[in-house]
Design a protein that fits this description.
Layout: E1 2-7, H1 22-30, E2 41-44, E3 48-50, H2 56-62, E4 72-74, E5 103-107, H3 109-119, H4 125-128, E6 131-135, E7 140-144, E8 147-153, E9 163-169, E10 172-177, H5 185-193, E11 198-204, H6 221-234, E12 242-246, H7 256-264, E13 269-270, E14 275-278
Parallel strand pairs: 3-4, 4-5, 5-6, 10-11, 11-12, 12-13
Antiparallel strand pairs: 1-2, 1-14, 2-3, 7-8, 8-9, 9-10
Bound molecules: zinc ion (ZN) (3 copies).
The site of one zinc ion (ZN) has 8 residues, from loops.
């Protein structure tokens, strides 16, 4: 199983789209260098995605995958950096030749609402029939093609059931923990009860070295370390599990080298756009 971190920035990206702070100005000046962080998206092998940000089109040619081959998209929540639905009207009609299979999108009812709203104006019937929207809920398990998926709740927003996913193929598991401010004991217990054994865990690290005290919409390194302990106590991870920090905000000035050094102190890995891990 190959996991590619296509985008590792928070909603505003890095450099933040409309920001003139010292950090963003410096990153902007460097141009398309390794310091750019696009909006969060993860590719699993070459046929499944977690989230669909506005940068998905760019990710496909920057990191060499074909969106036409994607059969499953697991959407965490409806925020614009995680679900940009307008592009789905291009999945067929005169916009896409060569024959397309059905693309399955999984998400909560709010994500379905955004999908309907954003595609209403331009959706063609022949495109609609190649897109299957599946509403999923926290504390559920389902199969998506060759993947076994476990869904747990995020703690991110009061207006919808934001979701976190564990995706497993051939006994190798990837646990995706963002966006969230905490992972509840119940959620960890549900993972354990359903046999989740993660080889890689990706954590919300929006705040960099600072803490969100597990009560915010996001996390920072101190919060990540608490969640990591809980996962270990429940047997969801072991000593071979790799731990990845991602979804960095411009407010924590996440220079690639600084984040790598910070993560290394705790035996963690700081993600960057295009980073691959094979498990
Ligand atoms: Zn986000
Ligand atoms: Zn900035
Ligand atoms: Zn969000």
């Amino acid at each position: 199983m190959e996991i590619t971190f296509l985008g590792t920035g928070a909603a505003e990206g890095i450099p933040a789209e409309f920001c003139k702070c010292e950090f963003c100005s410096a990153v902007r000046k460097l141009g398309i260098s390794g310091e750019v962080r696009t909006r969060a998206q993860v590719l699993i092998n070459s046929n499944a995605l977690i989230d669909f940000p506005p940068d998905s089109f760019y990710h496909s040619f920057a990191f060499g995958f074909s969106p036409a081959d994607i059969g499953h998209i697991f959407v965490t929540h409806s925020h614009m950096d995680h679900f940009y639905a307008h592009d789905f009207i291009l999945h067929g009609y005169k916009y896409a030749g060569g024959g397309l299979g059905v693309m399955n999108i999984y998400g909560n009812s709010e994500v379905k609402g955004v999908f309907d709203e954003c595609t209403a104006r331009e959706m063609k019937p022949e495109v609609a029939e190649k897109l299957a929207f599946n509403i999923v809920s926290p504390y559920s398990c389902f199969n998506a093609g060759e993947y076994r998926v476990i869904v747990i709740p995020a703690e991110h927003t009061a207006t919808e059931d934001s979701l976190l996913y564990y995706v497993e193929q051939e006994n190798k598991g990837y646990l995706h923990l963002h966006d969230t401010g905490n992972v509840s004991d119940d959620a960890v217990a549900y993972l354990a009860k359903n046999g989740a054994r993660a080889s890689v865990v990706a954590y919300d690290c929006t705040f960099g070295a600072k803490s969100g005290n597990l009560t915010s919409r996001h996390m920072g390194l101190p919060d990540v370390l608490v969640i990591k302990e809980k996962l270990a106590a429940a047997g969801v991870i072991d000593n071979d599990t790799r731990h990845v920090l991602t979804h960095f905000s411009h407010n924590c000035r996440p220079w690639r080298r600084d984040m790598a050094e910070l993560a290394e102190q705790y035996g963690l890995i700081a993600a960057y756009d295009g980073m691959k891990i094979t498990i």
